[in-house]
Each structure stands twice: as C-alpha cells, then as structure tokens.
C-alpha cells in the first residue's frame, strides 16, 4: 500500500467510522449531498434496432430548483460544520491526552523480558499520551536462578515510591495512570503491591509464558473458585505460618523444616495451574479472603505472620495491594529456594510501625535445619 492510498483509507475511516456528534453531522450532510445533485437531473436514452425501439426517459424532479439549491448548500454547510467541529474536538482531545502521564513500571528478575518491554505494550495502547517508564532489574542480584543478594535487590524496590511521587506531582491526580508488570520473586511482587496500595489508577499486567508477551487481566470473567482451608495446630501463640497454594502447592515439608513448632493455616485452590490467574475479579476476591483470614488471626492474638505464597506475579502484587499497612499485623513474605539447605531462607518483612521501612528477614537456623543439613 503506497502512501497516497494509506492516507485516503485512513481519512475515510476517520470520517465514516469514528463515532462523535461532529462526525454524525458531517455524515448527514454527506448522505444528502448526492441526493441534491440528482434533484434536477433529467436525461433520455434510446436504443434502436431494425425491429424495435427501447427508450429510457428520466424526467427531472418536480422539486423546485430553489429547494434543490437550498438542499445542496445546506448539505455542504452540514459537512463543513461537522468537519470543523471534529477538527476542534480532535485538537482539544490531543491536548488533553498530552497532559496525561502513563507511568509504566516493569520489574525484571526471573525471566528476561527485555525483548518485549512493557513500555512498548503501553505505547501501543495509550497513543497520544505522555509515556514514562521505569525498569527495576534485579538480575544482578541473582546467581544460578536464586536471589543471592536480597538486601541489594530490596533497595531498588524501596525507591519505587519516590519515582512515582516525582511524576505524579507534575499533573493532576486524574491525569496520572500506572501500568504495572513484573516477573520477580514473590516477596518483591507482594512488596510492590504494598507500596502502591494508595494509588487508585493502577492497571496490572502479567507475563504470558506461552506467548512470551505481556497480557492484561480479564476484568469480567471469574470462575468463583474459593480457598480450601486446613489448620495445623502448635503451641506458639504469637507467630503463625499462613501458606497459600495458588498456582502450585507450597512445600509443606519445607515449611515444617523452617518453621518448627509453629501453627499453620493453609489456603489452597483445588485447581492449581500456572494459568488460573487471568481474572482480575478472582484475584481481588481471593485477596479479600486472604485479608479476612489475617484479621481473624490478629483477633486470635497472632502478631507475627509468616506468609508462604505460591502464586503468579500479578497475584502476589494484588495481595500486597490489599494488605493494610496501618491496621494489619507484622508480616514476612518468604522466598522459596527448592535446592537451598534452608528452603525458605529469607523474606521481606513489613511492619505497621510508623516510619519503619520493609527489611530482609533471614530464617533462623534451628535444630531441624541442622539435622537436615
């Protein structure tokens, strides 16, 4: 398709497919224009052979010439008015879009997404808007697929609030929109959601491993699957393990090993699959159920929760968003390292104390771990 053809096609699509009151007026004039041209047309056509005469005689319309002229100029007026109005609308819309900031937050760690950066997806979807992006890359803190320097990685995430504040302060609240997508260890995904809980306009994407691309959550569908709850009792009355099996089962033997003599609450989905998370409604609903469970534990006197979460990145982020930093107890979200001598070696610790930053909490070495080693 050459340039001229492309321009013509795009112009026709803009004039006759785009919906707006201005273009409705333009189209009304465009529909009446050819009718007025035909109003005063008269012609006679004859076809003569040796044996017959075929004649087509079309008489001019009985509509007075004055009315035809009025209709002609009125249709032109409609088209001109509609086109001018639409141009003004488009200019105003472009200026409004240019004021809006879409802030894309991409977090890289477990999978290399640099060939399909989140910013490219955002630019295609939000054309005309001011796109800003930041990439939190913690791959330099990984070694052989495990997080070897969690404290170094944590520092990069703690700068997130400052990055958002810088951009948000330059525009009105309604003109600031966040798009989040990441593939990082569960503790950091949860922390990111926790840090962004006060942001109202957040669009969450996740990485589709089959398509190797970013994918939006479905805002409508919900399979209504619920957590199944089991309890393992123990003597501790202050600390408790809350284990959530969402995408795959948590390692219960590893939990017993790392958190001995500690009671456990298990929340499990019956259908644990890597692709069971694409419903935004489902994530929000189960996040609410998780928080209700935490509130129940708090009422029972537990003030130190050890969260073991097996889930996709967007689920961990959504659960972190739901965690109330002011009213819920101290929580630590643990990283799972299957081949490590300590399968849950560290976690991101979040406290409700004022002005206290999240920190890395190392798993205490105990007799069970010593025997396992």
TrEMBL record:
Under what name is this protein listed?
A: 2-methylthioadenine synthetase
For the keyword Transit peptide, the answer is no
Q: What is the lineage of its organism?
A: Bacteria, Pseudomonadati, Pseudomonadota, Gammaproteobacteria, Vibrionales
Q: Which organism is it from?
A: Vibrio vulnificus (strain CMCP6)
- Per the record, the domain of life is Bacteria
Check the record and name the InterPro entries matching this protein: Saf_2TM, SAVED
Provide the transmembrane region boundaries.
21-43, 63-85
A Pfam family the protein falls into: SAVED
Domain SAVED-fused 2TM effector, by residue range, is: 2-154
Keywords assigned by UniProt? Answer: Membrane, Transmembrane, Transmembrane helix
């Amino acid at each position: 398709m050459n340039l001229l053809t492309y321009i013509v096609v795009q112009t026709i699509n803009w004039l006759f497919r785009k919906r707006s009151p201005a273009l409705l007026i333009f189209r009304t004039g465009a529909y009446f224009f050819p009718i007025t041209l035909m109003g005063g047309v008269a012609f006679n056509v004859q076809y003569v052979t040796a044996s017959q005469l075929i004649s087509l005689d079309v008489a001019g319309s009985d509509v007075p010439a004055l009315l035809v002229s009025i209709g002609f100029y009125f249709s032109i007026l409609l088209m001109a008015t509609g086109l001018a109005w639409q141009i003004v609308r488009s200019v105003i819309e472009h200026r409004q879009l240019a004021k809006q900031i879409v802030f894309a937050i991409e977090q890289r760690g477990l999978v290399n997404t640099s060939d399909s950066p989140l910013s490219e997806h955002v630019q295609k979807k939000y054309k005309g808007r001011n796109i800003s992006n930041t990439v939190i890359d913690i791959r330099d803190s990984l070694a052989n697929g495990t997080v070897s320097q969690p404290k170094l990685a944590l520092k990069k995430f703690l700068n997130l609030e400052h990055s958002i504040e810088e951009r948000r302060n330059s525009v009105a609240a309604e003109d600031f929109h966040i798009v989040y997508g990441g593939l990082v260890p569960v503790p950091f995904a949860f922390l990111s959601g926790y840090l962004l809980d006060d942001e109202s306009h957040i669009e969450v994407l996740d990485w589709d491993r089959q398509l190797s691309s970013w994918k939006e959550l479905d805002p409508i569908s919900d399979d209504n699957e619920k957590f199944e709850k089991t309890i393992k009792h123990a003597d501790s009355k202050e600390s408790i393990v809350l284990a959530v099996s969402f995408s795959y089962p948590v390692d219960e033997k590893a939990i017993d090993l790392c958190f001995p003599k500690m009671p456990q609450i298990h929340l499990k989905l019956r259908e644990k699959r890597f692709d069971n998370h694409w419903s935004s409604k489902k994530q929000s609903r189960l996040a609410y159920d998780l928080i209700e469970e935490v509130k129940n534990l708090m009422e029972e006197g537990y003030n130190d929760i050890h969260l073991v979460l097996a889930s996709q990145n967007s689920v961990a982020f959504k659960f972190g968003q739901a965690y109330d930093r002011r009213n819920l107890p101290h929580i630590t979200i643990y990283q799972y390292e299957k081949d490590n001598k300590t399968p849950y070696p560290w976690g991101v610790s979040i406290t409700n104390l004022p002005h206290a930053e999240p920190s890395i909490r190392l798993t205490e070495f105990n007799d069970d771990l010593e025997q396992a080693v």
